[in-house]
Amino acid sequence: MNTTVEAAKGADGVTSVMDGHVAIITLDRPHRRNALNYRAYDQLEAAFRAASADPEVRCVVVTGADPAFCSGDDVGEIMAGPKRVSATPAAAPTATPAAMAALECTKPVIAAVNGAAVGWGMELALFADIRIASEAAKFAELFVKRGLPCDVGGFYRLPAVVGPAKAAELLFTGDVIDAAEALRIGLVSEVVAHAELMPRALALAGRIAANPPLAVQRLKEGLNRTAYGDPREIGAWAMGAIRELMRTEDHREGVASFLEKRAPVFRGR
Q: Which of 136, 152, 214, 254 could cross-link with 147 by S-S, CB 3.0 to 4.6 Å?
């Protein structure tokens, strides 16, 4: 593997290395099941921006360090820590920067989903153009369990991928589905044995990277133009809704019950 080009590299965060013309972005917080803290969000944004700007990059593979793809936000830091996201920011809400970096990446993105992709981890998988799953993969839009709506992926991409009714079911229930169900509903295009996941993803990325890069980029742009809505507008609305609901008792109960490992009791306030 050629590792001469690196972006956003660092222990306990996100790493990015080059394999030929393929950038491999890896969430590397396995002790936290690759949950994202502030540093990891910044590094993920930087890695996607770097891949988009680098003319040597023709395709991107995003994955997680085993045993998970991404377990979402690091709840203890993002939602409950001393630096928790403010529910009442002074400025108008804007789309999540890491989400927009992934969605606006000009190169094709393949998500190699090696384990749990839940909460923002499922969002990250949705930002990819193609999703390949290990047999160990699981998916869930868990935001409702924390008393919150999802980020932009659940609104902008999920209905187009699995259909509006199935998207509503996954969002409203927060149910966890396995790789076989994800394949059945079209959330992923392929399920492979765990050991075969990265070889299969890199082989596909290599076939894409072998094609004329400018033509591939225009193909991706054309596919994005067929999607309904503006992801920045949708993302800003989603962040506004998230910040509003972060002031509710139900959100505090969702966080507390998760940290205390007990069933939540929601009261609609």
A: 254
**DSSP one-letter string for 182-205:** HHHTTS-SEEE-GGGHHHHHHHHH
The per-residue b/e assignment along 147-171, b for 16 or more CB within 10 angstroms, e otherwise, is bbbbbbbbbbbbbebbeeebbeebb
H, E, C per residue of 85-98: CCCCCCCCCCCCHH
The three-state secondary structure class of 160 is helix
Question: 234 with 94: CB under 8 angstroms?
Answer: no
Q: What was the pLDDT predicted at 75?
A: 84
The answer to whether 94 and 57 are in contact (CB under 8 A) is no
pLDDT digits (tens, 9 = 90+) for 239-262: 999 989 988 999 999 889 988 989
Write out pLDDT tens, residues 141-161: 999 999 999 999 999 999 999
User: Whole-model pTM?
Assistant: 0.89
